[in-house]
Structures are given as structure tokens and as C-alpha cells.
Amino acid sequence: MAATLAPARQTRAPQLSIQTLEPDDIPMLRLPGLRGAQALRREIECYPGRSVWAPATLEFAVVSPWRNRPEIACVSELVAVRHTESLLREAFDRCAAHGDDLLLAIELESQRSPTVHERAGMQLLEEVITYEMPAPREPWRPRPSVRYVGVQANDKRGIDEMFGIDRAAFPWLWRNSRSEFDVYLRTPGVEVALIEVGGEPVAYVGATLFTGWGHLDRIAVAPERQGHGIGLEALGLAVDAMRRRGARRIGLSTQRTNWRSQTLYERFGFRRTHDHDYRLFGRWTNPERGARGGTA
Fold it and tell me: Per-residue pLDDT for 2 more than 50?
């Protein structure tokens, strides 16, 4: 009599347990590169409840405020091989529970398609492109009415002026918080200046100098003064300041959709590079703000 084989019992793989990453969990992680345990602890303590990890695989995602803006969360560290999407979804749920408006993630490998961020429910918000040029040999000669006025970390009036220009000139996502200005002005190598025309502040620039290389971090012109050559004057003065401080090459970045800034930079002599382009993905936790496109 032939033996009857019982049908094989189907077993389901156990679901991965993803937990909130707490400071006391840090010693169990495998931290990549130069990432220090103390720095990671401070980051989690300052923005608690959003970071996540999988104890079984030691994969994790660290979430921090975007540009020191607590209403916008950003994945600042992602160490994952098989469960990236699950980690991002769990981080999103925690950000939503904390009332954050948006969760962001930066993808440096912009050629991957379909992207893991899209599979995790995130959408492409911006593509950031980069430019570079050799530092000019000749100094920039502004119009007589245009002045470059340095702003220091203790200059409350100057910072207030920049803050007002910044909020008027940039869309919601790219605005700097007051806390971001305070941190930025105390960063080594940073130089910030207001651009005045006839004694009136109409723009500001910010740049960071590295060894032999400068990066234009920010250029903003008050909306009512745009279209009158102020952007070109501000750019020329910022580049000249970096040249005088020893920069031999100068780089910057802008959004792919910002045609006005691209025209300005290319007119000045900057040329496209591709080594540091990146894409910014996001998922709105605040549907109302997302429906308005992040506007104020």
C-alpha cells in the first residue's frame, strides 16, 4: 500500500521587529565610518522618538530636524541592506505621531530606478544640481552704491535682516530657521554678509572656505529687488571674498527647477558638474500642507 504524503506545511517568515531607537541601544549598533556614538546619542536625545532600528539585523535609521527646523524631519543616517523600506515606513509613522509636517530623505545615488524611497511611499520633491568654476584672477568691481557688509554671530540686527530676506526669497522647504542662522554663523570657515544698495540691505550671501576651495552656500535677493542686477552683484562679491581668502575653485548647488539661478551662475562662468548631484524625497505627514506644496 503506497504511503500518502501529507501536504507540506507552509511556514511564514517571522515579521521583522522594528523598534524606536533609544540612546541606550547605541552600543549594540555597528556605526559606519567616522560616526561617533556620542554624536549619535546627542542627535537622538535632541529629536527623540523618530529614529528606528531592527535589533535582529542591527539595521537602523536616524532622524534629525532638517536645517534645524523641528517641523521637518530628515533621515540623516540610514544603515540597511534588506529592510530599508520597512525602516522608512516606521520612521514616517513615528514622525506623524509627533506632529511633524514632512519626512525627508536624501538619495545621492540618483541613477537608481525605481528608487527604494519611492517604494517606501516617498515622492521626489527636488533634484539638486551642482556647479563649479576656477576662482577669478581679477577682483570683482561692484557698482559704487553696492556694499558687502560682513555679519557676525553676535550681530542681532544683521541676522534679523538676513532672516527677513530669506523668508521672503525662498519657498517654505528651503527657508532657514533662526536656529539655523545661529548654528551656521558659528561654523568654522563660514563667512556671511549683507549686500546693501545705497545703505539698504537687499540681499545676503553665505559661503564656507575649505583648504583651497570655497562653497557658496546661500545667495538670496529680496523679491522686490530681483531683476535689477542685484543677484549678479551679490554673486560677484561672494566669489571675490572667497578668492581673497585663498579659494582656487568655487562650487555651489541649486534646484534643477530654478532656471533663474542657473542662468545667473552660467552667465558668471560656472559650469555644471555631476559628482555631487542628489535627489530629495519626501512624504507629507501633514496632508494639508502637502496639498499646498509646502507653502506658508
Answer: no
Q: Is the pLDDT of residue 15 over 80?
A: no
Query: Are both 19-126+280-291 and 136-247 of the same fold?
Result: yes
Task: Render pLDDT for 258-286 as a digit per residue (tens, 0 to 9).
Answer: 999 999 999 999 999 988 899 999 999 87
Nearest to 219 by CA among 186, 179, 265: 265
CATH 1.10.340.30 fits 136-247, yes or no: no
Single-letter residue type at 249: R
What residue type is 24 in one-letter code?
D
In the chain, where the domains are located: 19-126+280-291, 136-247
Q: Is the pLDDT of residue 6 over 70?
A: no
| Domain 19-126+280-291: CATH class, spelled out | alpha beta
Instruction: Answer whether 222's CB lies under 8 Å from 203's CB.
Output: yes
Residue 166 parent element (H or E) = helix 156-169
